[in-house]
Write a structure and sequence with these properties.
It contains 7 helices and 10 strands. The protein is an alpha+beta fold and 273 residues long.
């Protein structure tokens, strides 16, 4: 019986689809696409293995669910891990006869009223404590600049790598030189609540939400990568110099600044139709 990844490769070839076409559309490295077709899944990053396979299978027009199931089976054979069905919760024991009736403790009316007032007082104290904690948190957020934790109603959804692959297309790309000298700093200024992810020198990763009228400044040496859920009402500065072409785009945007020579690459995304 043919291995499933051989079947996928044959389907791609039968459909006259080149690997480079899949690479151009998904941005997945060619070596990873070749590894999928050769069954060399240990080459793929473990975190993105299923994501890459799903994108590949979608491009060649096959069943993603079936391919992922076969991947799991293949890995279980290679790694020697037996796949077992999920454990089910134990059944509730059955009792014969009538349910036992436990005697209710007796309380006097005076005792019941006393317990009622104690319970009401405890609820009032808890509610007051919650109110005070919220007020303190709110005051601290207003007093301190930079990223803040937002209330649930104001939360901003992050933009993951999977989102960009499956839900967005590139709308525009700018690549330009930039006049700046070391030491380098990047400053992100948000006029509205904005999610961000920043990778500094390909090692340190920061992510979170910049509250309205907040900013974030970070130093870097050779490279900084920035992604925001929107470019609308967001501006970026390198060494105090505004980066052009950020625009007022309400969809995700990625910015990469590279030194030696200094260049800025900006990508705007638009949702799939």
């Amino acid at each position: 019986m043919e291995l499933f990844y051989n079947d996928l490769k044959k389907l791609r070839e039968d459909n006259n689809i080149e690997l480079v076409e899949i690479h151009n559309r998904t941005k997945i490295d060619l070596k990873y696409l070749e590894a999928i077709e050769e069954g060399e899944f240990d080459i793929l990053p473990r975190t993105y293995m299923r994501l890459f396979l799903r994108a590949y299978v979608t491009e060649i027009g096959s069943d993603t669910k079936d391919a992922l199931n076969q991947l799991d089976h293949h890995l279980s054979q290679v790694d020697g891990i037996e796949i077992t069905p999920e454990a089910t919760a134990p059944e509730e024991p059955e009792f014969s006869g009538s349910d036992p009736v436990l005697p209710m403790p007796s309380k006097t009316p005076k005792k019941m009223i006393s317990d009622y007032y104690k319970g009401a007082l405890l609820i009032i104290v808890v509610l007051f404590a919650i109110f005070v904690i919220k007020q303190i948190s709110s005051d601290e957020s207003e007093a301190v600049g930079g990223p803040v934790t937002l209330r649930a109603a104001e939360s901003v959804e992050p933009v993951t790598n999977e989102d960009l692959i499956f839900n967005y297309n590139r709308l525009a790309v700018w690549d330009q030189t930039f006049d700046a000298e070391a030491p380098f700093t990047i400053k992100v200024i948000a006029q509205k609540s904005t999610w961000y992810r920043m990778i500094i020198d390909e090692s340190d990763t920061l992510s979170g939400v910049l509250g309205r009228n907040r900013d974030l400044t970070q130093e870097f040496t050779g490279r900084v990568d920035l992604r925001t859920n929107s470019a609308k009402d967001v501006s970026v500065q390198i060494n105090g110099i505004a980066v052009q072409n950020m625009g007022n785009h309400s969809q995700p945007v990625e910015l990469t600044f590279l030194t030696d020579p200094n260049r800025v690459n900006i990508i705007h995304y638009t949702p799939n139709q």
